[in-house]
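User: Design a sequence. Structure:
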Protein backbone atom coordinates (compact mmCIF):
# COMPACT_ATOMS: atom_id res chain seq x y z
CA UNK A 1 0.00 0.00 0.00
CA UNK A 2 1.41 3.37 -1.03
CA UNK A 3 1.80 5.90 1.80
CA UNK A 4 3.30 9.36 1.95
CA UNK A 5 6.93 9.54 2.96
CA UNK A 6 8.20 12.11 5.49
CA UNK A 7 9.39 14.25 2.57
CA UNK A 8 6.00 14.26 0.87
CA UNK A 9 4.37 15.55 4.04
CA UNK A 10 6.54 18.66 3.85
CA UNK A 11 4.77 19.65 0.63
CA UNK A 12 1.05 20.34 0.80
CA UNK A 13 -0.90 22.54 -1.58
CA UNK A 14 -1.59 25.11 1.12
CA UNK A 15 2.12 26.07 1.06
CA UNK A 16 1.71 27.51 -2.40
CA UNK A 17 -0.03 30.81 -1.43
CA UNK A 18 3.11 31.93 0.41
CA UNK A 19 5.37 31.75 -2.63
CA UNK A 20 7.17 34.87 -3.78
CA UNK A 21 5.85 35.94 -7.16
CA UNK A 22 7.23 38.11 -9.91
CA UNK A 23 5.42 41.06 -11.50
CA UNK A 24 3.65 38.85 -14.05
CA UNK A 25 2.20 36.62 -11.29
CA UNK A 26 4.53 33.68 -11.90
CA UNK A 27 6.41 32.16 -8.98
CA UNK A 28 9.89 33.71 -8.93
CA UNK A 29 12.56 31.29 -10.13
CA UNK A 30 15.60 30.82 -7.92
CA UNK A 31 17.40 28.49 -10.31
CA UNK A 32 16.88 27.19 -13.82
CA UNK A 33 18.46 24.04 -15.18
CA UNK A 34 17.55 20.41 -15.74
CA UNK A 35 16.88 17.18 -13.90
CA UNK A 36 19.36 14.62 -15.19
CA UNK A 37 19.22 10.85 -14.75
CA UNK A 38 20.67 8.36 -17.18
CA UNK A 39 20.41 9.95 -20.62
CA UNK A 40 17.19 11.79 -19.72
CA UNK A 41 17.26 15.55 -19.20
CA UNK A 42 14.17 17.52 -18.08
CA UNK A 43 14.35 21.35 -18.21
CA UNK A 44 12.97 22.81 -14.96
CA UNK A 45 12.91 25.97 -12.86
CA UNK A 46 13.19 26.03 -9.08
CA UNK A 47 10.98 28.12 -6.77
CA UNK A 48 10.85 28.17 -2.97
CA UNK A 49 7.95 26.34 -1.34
CA UNK A 50 8.21 28.43 1.83
CA UNK A 51 6.75 31.93 2.09
CA UNK A 52 8.52 34.53 4.26
CA UNK A 53 5.79 37.18 4.10
CA UNK A 54 4.27 36.10 7.41
CA UNK A 55 7.47 36.41 9.43
CA UNK A 56 7.57 39.21 11.99
CA UNK A 57 10.70 41.35 11.84
CA UNK A 58 12.01 43.62 14.59
CA UNK A 59 14.70 46.32 14.74
CA UNK A 60 16.82 47.39 17.70
CA UNK A 61 15.98 50.95 18.73
CA UNK A 62 17.24 53.47 21.26
CA UNK A 63 14.57 53.49 23.99
CA UNK A 64 15.05 57.25 24.53
CA UNK A 65 14.13 58.47 21.04
CA UNK A 66 13.31 55.25 19.11
CA UNK A 67 16.10 55.84 16.61
CA UNK A 68 17.70 52.79 14.99
CA UNK A 69 20.80 51.25 16.53
CA UNK A 70 23.86 51.04 14.29
CA UNK A 71 26.78 48.64 14.69
CA UNK A 72 30.43 49.54 14.50
CA UNK A 73 33.38 47.22 13.94
CA UNK A 74 36.04 47.50 16.64
CA UNK A 75 39.43 45.82 16.85
CA UNK A 76 39.62 43.99 20.20
CA UNK A 77 43.40 44.47 20.34
CA UNK A 78 43.63 48.18 19.52
CA UNK A 79 40.16 49.34 20.62
CA UNK A 80 39.62 51.35 17.42
CA UNK A 81 36.93 51.25 14.73
CA UNK A 82 38.04 49.34 11.62
CA UNK A 83 36.84 50.20 8.07
CA UNK A 84 35.56 47.43 5.81
CA UNK A 85 38.63 47.80 3.59
CA UNK A 86 40.83 46.49 6.43
CA UNK A 87 38.65 43.51 7.40
CA UNK A 88 39.45 39.95 6.29
CA UNK A 89 37.97 36.55 7.08
CA UNK A 90 39.84 34.05 9.22
CA UNK A 91 39.39 30.39 10.10
CA UNK A 92 40.27 29.51 13.72
CA UNK A 93 42.22 26.24 13.44
CA UNK A 94 43.38 26.43 17.09
CA UNK A 95 42.16 28.57 19.96
CA UNK A 96 43.30 32.13 19.19
CA UNK A 97 45.09 31.02 15.99
CA UNK A 98 43.65 31.95 12.61
CA UNK A 99 44.46 31.45 8.96
CA UNK A 100 43.24 34.22 6.64
CA UNK A 101 40.99 33.09 3.77
CA UNK A 102 40.83 35.61 0.90
CA UNK A 103 38.20 36.15 -1.79
CA UNK A 104 40.49 34.32 -4.23
CA UNK A 105 40.53 31.31 -1.88
CA UNK A 106 36.73 31.25 -1.83
CA UNK A 107 36.68 31.45 -5.63
CA UNK A 108 39.02 28.45 -5.86
CA UNK A 109 36.74 26.45 -3.56
CA UNK A 110 33.62 27.05 -5.66
CA UNK A 111 31.88 23.99 -7.05
CA UNK A 112 31.29 24.08 -10.80
CA UNK A 113 27.69 25.16 -11.39
CA UNK A 114 26.52 22.55 -13.90
CA UNK A 115 22.87 23.78 -13.92
CA UNK A 116 21.79 20.18 -13.40
CA UNK A 117 20.16 18.23 -10.64
CA UNK A 118 22.12 15.01 -11.06
CA UNK A 119 20.12 12.07 -9.72
CA UNK A 120 22.52 9.42 -8.39
CA UNK A 121 20.10 6.98 -6.78
CA UNK A 122 16.39 6.21 -6.41
CA UNK A 123 15.84 5.12 -2.81
CA UNK A 124 12.68 4.01 -0.93
CA UNK A 125 10.67 7.09 0.03
CA UNK A 126 10.36 6.15 3.71
CA UNK A 127 14.03 5.25 4.12
CA UNK A 128 15.22 8.85 4.65
CA UNK A 129 15.22 10.15 8.21
CA UNK A 130 13.47 13.48 8.96
CA UNK A 131 16.71 14.98 10.27
CA UNK A 132 18.27 15.01 6.80
CA UNK A 133 15.64 17.33 5.30
CA UNK A 134 16.37 21.05 5.15
CA UNK A 135 14.60 23.50 2.79
CA UNK A 136 11.70 22.64 0.45
CA UNK A 137 11.30 23.86 -3.14
CA UNK A 138 9.01 23.22 -6.08
CA UNK A 139 10.27 22.30 -9.52
CA UNK A 140 8.18 23.29 -12.54
CA UNK A 141 8.69 22.28 -16.19
CA UNK A 142 10.53 24.93 -18.18
CA UNK A 143 10.31 25.44 -21.91
CA UNK A 144 8.38 23.70 -24.66
CA UNK A 145 8.24 19.92 -24.56
CA UNK A 146 9.25 19.63 -20.90
CA UNK A 147 5.77 18.85 -19.55
CA UNK A 148 5.63 15.28 -20.87
CA UNK A 149 8.96 14.12 -19.42
CA UNK A 150 8.20 16.05 -16.20
CA UNK A 151 4.86 14.27 -15.77
CA UNK A 152 6.42 10.91 -16.63
CA UNK A 153 9.11 11.23 -13.93
CA UNK A 154 6.64 12.57 -11.34
CA UNK A 155 4.17 9.72 -11.86
CA UNK A 156 6.89 7.06 -12.09
CA UNK A 157 8.27 8.16 -8.72
CA UNK A 158 4.77 8.09 -7.23
CA UNK A 159 4.03 4.61 -8.59
CA UNK A 160 7.32 3.12 -7.42
CA UNK A 161 7.40 4.85 -4.02
CA UNK A 162 10.95 6.00 -4.67
CA UNK A 163 12.76 9.29 -4.11
CA UNK A 164 15.48 10.60 -6.39
CA UNK A 165 18.62 11.57 -4.45
CA UNK A 166 21.32 13.66 -6.08
CA UNK A 167 23.25 16.91 -5.98
CA UNK A 168 22.50 20.45 -7.10
CA UNK A 169 24.59 23.63 -6.94
CA UNK A 170 22.72 26.58 -5.42
CA UNK A 171 24.38 29.91 -4.58
CA UNK A 172 27.82 28.51 -5.41
CA UNK A 173 27.53 25.60 -2.98
CA UNK A 174 26.77 21.97 -3.72
CA UNK A 175 23.74 20.56 -1.88
CA UNK A 176 22.47 17.06 -1.42
CA UNK A 177 18.83 16.98 -2.52
CA UNK A 178 15.81 14.68 -2.65
CA UNK A 179 13.22 14.71 -5.44
CA UNK A 180 9.67 13.47 -4.87
CA UNK A 181 6.14 14.11 -6.21
CA UNK A 182 3.92 16.45 -4.18
CA UNK A 183 0.47 16.51 -5.70
CA UNK A 184 0.92 17.58 -9.31
CA UNK A 185 4.34 19.09 -8.62
CA UNK A 186 7.80 17.65 -8.34
CA UNK A 187 9.23 18.78 -4.99
CA UNK A 188 12.91 19.12 -4.19
CA UNK A 189 14.25 19.31 -0.65
CA UNK A 190 17.85 20.23 0.04
CA UNK A 191 19.35 17.81 2.56
CA UNK A 192 22.07 17.72 5.17
CA UNK A 193 25.12 15.58 4.49
CA UNK A 194 25.84 12.69 6.83
CA UNK A 195 28.73 14.54 8.51
CA UNK A 196 26.30 17.32 9.55
CA UNK A 197 24.10 14.98 11.60
CA UNK A 198 25.28 14.29 15.14
CA UNK A 199 25.11 10.71 16.33
CA UNK A 200 23.06 9.88 19.43
CA UNK A 201 25.64 7.36 20.67
CA UNK A 202 26.74 9.48 23.63
CA UNK A 203 23.19 9.93 24.96
CA UNK A 204 21.96 7.80 27.84
CA UNK A 205 19.05 6.14 26.02
CA UNK A 206 16.97 3.07 26.94
CA UNK A 207 17.32 0.10 24.60
CA UNK A 208 14.51 -0.73 22.21
CA UNK A 209 12.04 -3.27 23.52
CA UNK A 210 13.07 -2.80 27.14
CA UNK A 211 11.94 -0.74 30.13
CA UNK A 212 8.18 -1.21 29.83
CA UNK A 213 5.58 -3.89 30.50
CA UNK A 214 3.16 -5.51 28.04
CA UNK A 215 0.24 -3.77 29.79
CA UNK A 216 1.91 -0.37 29.44
CA UNK A 217 2.56 -1.01 25.76
CA UNK A 218 -1.06 -2.04 25.16
CA UNK A 219 -2.36 1.12 26.83
CA UNK A 220 0.14 3.30 24.95
CA UNK A 221 -1.00 1.85 21.61
CA UNK A 222 -4.64 2.43 22.54
CA UNK A 223 -3.87 6.05 23.41
CA UNK A 224 -2.08 6.52 20.06
CA UNK A 225 -5.14 5.09 18.28
CA UNK A 226 -7.37 7.74 19.89
CA UNK A 227 -5.18 10.41 18.27
CA UNK A 228 -4.92 8.81 14.82
CA UNK A 229 -5.70 11.27 12.05
CA UNK A 230 -4.91 12.14 8.48
CA UNK A 231 -2.28 14.80 7.90
CA UNK A 232 -4.11 18.14 7.61
CA UNK A 233 -1.53 20.96 7.97
CA UNK A 234 -4.19 23.69 8.10
CA UNK A 235 -5.32 22.34 11.49
CA UNK A 236 -2.12 23.57 13.12
CA UNK A 237 -1.61 27.28 13.80
CA UNK A 238 1.31 29.42 14.92
CA UNK A 239 -0.27 30.52 18.20
CA UNK A 240 2.80 32.52 19.28
CA UNK A 241 2.77 34.61 16.09
CA UNK A 242 -0.97 35.23 16.42
CA UNK A 243 -0.60 36.27 20.07
CA UNK A 244 2.32 38.58 19.23
CA UNK A 245 0.34 40.24 16.42
CA UNK A 246 -2.53 40.75 18.86
CA UNK A 247 -0.17 42.43 21.34
CA UNK A 248 1.21 44.72 18.61
CA UNK A 249 -2.28 45.67 17.43
CA UNK A 250 -3.43 46.51 20.98
CA UNK A 251 -0.35 48.67 21.56
CA UNK A 252 -1.07 50.57 18.32
CA UNK A 253 -4.65 51.14 19.51
CA UNK A 254 -3.47 52.27 22.95
CA UNK A 255 -5.13 49.37 24.69
CA UNK A 256 -3.86 47.58 27.79
CA UNK A 257 -1.99 44.36 27.08
CA UNK A 258 -2.60 41.66 29.65
CA UNK A 259 -0.16 38.83 30.18
CA UNK A 260 -1.34 35.36 29.24
CA UNK A 261 -2.01 33.07 32.21
CA UNK A 262 0.82 30.72 33.09
CA UNK A 263 0.12 27.06 32.48
CA UNK A 264 0.86 24.67 35.35
CA UNK A 265 4.12 22.78 35.05
CA UNK A 266 3.73 19.13 34.12
CA UNK A 267 4.30 16.85 37.09
CA UNK A 268 6.50 13.73 36.88
CA UNK A 269 4.55 10.55 36.20
CA UNK A 270 4.58 8.36 39.28
CA UNK A 271 2.29 5.58 38.06
CA UNK A 272 2.62 5.15 34.28
CA UNK A 273 -0.28 2.68 33.97
CA UNK A 274 -2.61 4.99 35.88
CA UNK A 275 -1.59 7.98 33.75
CA UNK A 276 -2.26 6.02 30.54
CA UNK A 277 -5.63 4.76 31.77
CA UNK A 278 -6.73 8.26 32.80
CA UNK A 279 -5.57 9.65 29.46
CA UNK A 280 -7.65 7.06 27.62
CA UNK A 281 -10.71 7.74 29.78
CA UNK A 282 -10.52 11.49 29.09
CA UNK A 283 -10.32 11.25 25.29
CA UNK A 284 -13.14 10.50 22.84
CA UNK A 285 -12.19 7.75 20.43
CA UNK A 286 -11.60 8.89 16.86
CA UNK A 287 -12.42 7.00 13.72
CA UNK A 288 -9.23 5.35 12.40
CA UNK A 289 -7.52 7.31 9.64
CA UNK A 290 -8.30 5.96 6.18
CA UNK A 291 -5.30 4.68 4.28
CA UNK A 292 -4.85 6.29 0.85
CA UNK A 293 -5.90 4.02 -2.03
CA UNK A 294 -3.21 2.30 -4.07
CA UNK A 295 -2.37 4.41 -7.06
CA UNK A 296 -2.86 2.72 -10.40
CA UNK A 297 -0.29 3.07 -13.13
CA UNK A 298 -1.59 5.42 -15.82
CA UNK A 299 -0.34 6.78 -19.06
CA UNK A 300 1.82 9.88 -18.71
CA UNK A 301 -0.39 12.96 -18.89
CA UNK A 302 0.39 16.59 -19.48
CA UNK A 303 0.50 18.85 -16.44
CA UNK A 304 -2.76 20.73 -15.94
CA UNK A 305 -3.04 24.42 -16.57
CA UNK A 306 -2.83 25.24 -12.85
CA UNK A 307 0.72 26.10 -11.92
CA UNK A 308 2.58 23.61 -9.75
CA UNK A 309 3.75 26.43 -7.53
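Assistant: Done.
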Amino acid sequence: MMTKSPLARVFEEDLAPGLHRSENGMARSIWTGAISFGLVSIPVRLVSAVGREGELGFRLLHAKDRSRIDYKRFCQEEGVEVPWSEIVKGYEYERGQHVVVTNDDFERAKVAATQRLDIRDFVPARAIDFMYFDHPYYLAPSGRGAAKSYALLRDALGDTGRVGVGTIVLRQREHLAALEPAGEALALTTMRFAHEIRAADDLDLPKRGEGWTDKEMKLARQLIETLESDWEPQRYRDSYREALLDVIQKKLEGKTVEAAPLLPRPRPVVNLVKALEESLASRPRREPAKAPPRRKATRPRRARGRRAA
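Residues 6-50+109-196 form a domain with the Ku70; Chain: A; Domain 2 fold (CATH 2.40.290.10). The radius of gyration is 26 Å.
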